[in-house]
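Reopening this one. Same input as before:
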Amino acid sequence: MTPPTPLFSPSMSRKSEHDEARRREDATSLEYYIADMLRVLEYACIWSGESSLSLLKTLLSTGATIVFMFINTLLLLSEVVALTMNNDLKLFANIIGVIGMHFTGLLKWCYCIRTNREIVDIVTKLGKCHVLCQRIDKSEEGYRIYRNEMEHVRKYSNFFVWWWTFACVYGVLHWCANPLLLEWAPDQINSINHTFKNRILPFVGWYPLNTDNVYNYACLYLMQIIGGISPALGIVCYDAFYVTVLMVICAQFQYINTIMVKIDFDNGSETMFILESKLKACVDCHTEIIKFLKMLQTFSSPTMFAQCIETLVILCLVSFEASVIKIALDMESILKLWALLEYFLCAAFQLYFFCFFATRLEHLGLQIAHSVYSCGWEFVDFEKKAQVDFRKQSKHCDIGRLVQTIMVRAQRSIVLTGGPFYVLSLETFRVIMSMAMSNSVMLRTISELDE
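Same output, byte for byte:
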């Protein structure tokens, strides 16, 4: 009689253990927490790391990128030509604000494609910080705390990526749909032959085509929709990358602040070695994060300078344009005000995210010095001074030097800048908003004097 076949063979058990270990490794890798952001960069032909796209998807994404950027360039050139032919202050405000958005989106996309190797290096460096951060506390509780912090990053990063994509694309499509809603309004249709009295395009530009021709009008309208979505995608790619990176660093700083105050002093003589190990790992991790932030600052400074200038111009001109609209209950005024409000909020929220996370990063970085100093390191030796030998006293000296090293480095403020003039902070956001409102009031006064 043959023995019954076991339900789980040794090979199956080893396979399940291997799968469990692999799942744990995947959960602790940085790519697991920023997967959606990397996927967006991959579809935009920015991420040049290990690709998960098939050959067909790669070709389609490359072709779509070329088409989007080419049409965006054509739209930008037509708007610049229309700007040089314009003498009306109100129309000038409309054109220059749109040009700013289209130029910044194209600039961010081109800059990311040009510096895609630097982006890979930044993610690689961030992955090293990720590994070093987990070595500060190798216990199950330390792993659980860090995993919870990174799970928050994954959740909020995914939410930001897809919410910001929806907001930007929806804003562009809503802006482009307004002319169609106005043209299909009853007072815009000729009652005799049921044709449009005038044809309106979403963005003001100069074109060597007759827009009265329905085919020319349809082609120009489609070109403007694609040209409007293109900078929105460029903005989404860069913003998702920058904000996600700041989220990860903030989570790592928060973890260091949390784990350094969780020292168990009930382990007796082992406490000194545990504390020393934590402090050494903390020094290595903090040093690597500071190097990473310098690399990120070098990469992002030019684009963030353009971002601050563009946001200031957009907020100023949109506020001015909204202030000169005659308030009425007709369809044109309502759609115009709603589109300007969406435009204003997107520009304001975009700068706010950068300034918020830069301020949070500075606050958490300064808090590390307090957390390390408050970890109770002085009690490790002082309470048992009479019982320790020379070797343990030297260990205490090492602990003191480690604490001093971390405190000196952590007391230096971490400042992210936008070029040589702008410091990314909530105070900068407040100043830019106030300056934009003041400039819009000045433009409104000049406009009233000209009339």
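So the earlier flakiness isn't reproducible anymore. For the record, The chain is about 75% helix and 0% strand.
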